[in-house]
């Protein structure tokens, strides 16, 4: 098993985060729940539709991990993949309402909506977002962003709703993928081929410096798992990151937008927002 | 004037329009069928300080402003009505650098919290309802109503961009959409997914006539009444072309409680 968390598969990642021997996969590959929409477009489906749901324990407490496989269709969410995550969060909520404390961990390597199942992916992501908001009032919902795909699209919005976000240094977090921005806004606005530029704006260290994630760790399993345990122990945050309009709005309204922005400029602005 | 603006003005003519936190987010308070209601619109603003958000896109300012106006309305049991005419989220460097995903999360989170706390949340689609913009403004509603008109469109990405990203031609996308309902851009296919609470036939979708307005108000009042009894989105799982979403949940539930 890999000790590099970022290199591991979604299934390995879920195993690596849960207490030894406690991993139990729900709707695993043997359930053969494939996408009803991909085959008729000539795309080979996968028996888990690219999402691993695992129940188990973390530091002895009941937890569910939903891990997205970046290697299948770019970690995109279609109907089945999205329903697996939304359904797991809804069941975790029910457990908490019944007095069984259950935390949720989302391992987010995803480009967002799977365009081949467009509107059903979008609908599932709305339901995931709703479930995160409801669950985070009971137990922390922790997002982990790692792997080469990064976390984009509707699932970056879901990430923004998590109680805490952990990111590895090589991870990326943003709403729109670099190629789409370049296509929509031009290469002067966003050069999708300029990798250092992209990481300088959306990489783990930049997101931590801007206060948009709680931790930036190395790529090893040890550092990710210990950050996860730290935030689970910390309990519910006093203020949700997504409730901070009174800090963001005035700062954004004061900006001088005559110059294009670089990474250092963005850090300075976001530092001011946090102060 | 945008479609959204026409409908906002018509639906709020007996309400009190308030200055929103930014010019691209409009707010009016009044009553819908005898209950307190706040109507919210995102609209184009040619002078938007963020150049990539001047055509009605949901950007940094719009996301955080939506969160503010939604949360401010949740003191009493007020209905929230989102009028949806949003072409997309804003695509730009400033937006990514300053965390547009977080701004949109703020808006989606505020609407979700309001619904879960028992506020009826309604969305009325009068134009485009695209992608991240719709997630932030409308998709958390108890009930999604739409004008039955070709200009009303729900999708994860505009057709031209979707063609480029999936390396298909727009003609290919149209051909696929004809047999794959979730890929289609039209309302009939969207309705088959079970996500719409109603389609309202109007004589003028651009700007309502008197009888259009009556129809829409009646549909909104009925949706509000229904929404009072529920805080969840479970009713969205009953669509004929959404059976897998329900099946996944049933099977998950069976396996959830088993101890290994």
From TrEMBL, chain A:
<dbReference type="Pfam" id="PF01039">
    <property type="entry name" value="Carboxyl_trans"/>
</dbReference>
<dbReference type="GO" id="GO:2001295">
    <property type="term" value="P:malonyl-CoA biosynthetic process"/>
</dbReference>
<protein>
    <submittedName>
        <fullName>Malonate decarboxylase beta subunit</fullName>
    </submittedName>
</protein>
<dbReference type="GO" id="GO:0005975">
    <property type="term" value="P:carbohydrate metabolic process"/>
</dbReference>
<feature type="domain" description="CoA carboxyltransferase N-terminal">
    <location>
        <begin position="1"/>
        <end position="186"/>
    </location>
</feature>
<dbReference type="GO" id="GO:0016740">
    <property type="term" value="F:transferase activity"/>
</dbReference>
<dbReference type="InterPro" id="IPR011762">
    <property type="entry name" value="COA_CT_N"/>
</dbReference>
<dbReference type="InterPro" id="IPR029045">
    <property type="entry name" value="ClpP/crotonase-like_dom_sf"/>
</dbReference>
<dbReference type="InterPro" id="IPR017556">
    <property type="entry name" value="Malonate_beta"/>
</dbReference>
<dbReference type="GO" id="GO:0006633">
    <property type="term" value="P:fatty acid biosynthetic process"/>
</dbReference>
<dbReference type="GO" id="GO:0016831">
    <property type="term" value="F:carboxy-lyase activity"/>
</dbReference>
<keyword id="KW-0808">Transferase</keyword>
<dbReference type="GO" id="GO:0003989">
    <property type="term" value="F:acetyl-CoA carboxylase activity"/>
</dbReference>
<dbReference type="InterPro" id="IPR034733">
    <property type="entry name" value="AcCoA_carboxyl_beta"/>
</dbReference>
Automatic annotation (TrEMBL), chain B:
<dbReference type="InterPro" id="IPR029045">
    <property type="entry name" value="ClpP/crotonase-like_dom_sf"/>
</dbReference>
<dbReference type="InterPro" id="IPR009648">
    <property type="entry name" value="Malonate_gamma"/>
</dbReference>
<protein>
    <submittedName>
        <fullName>Malonate decarboxylase gamma subunit</fullName>
    </submittedName>
</protein>
<dbReference type="GO" id="GO:0005975">
    <property type="term" value="P:carbohydrate metabolic process"/>
</dbReference>
<dbReference type="Pfam" id="PF06833">
    <property type="entry name" value="MdcE"/>
</dbReference>
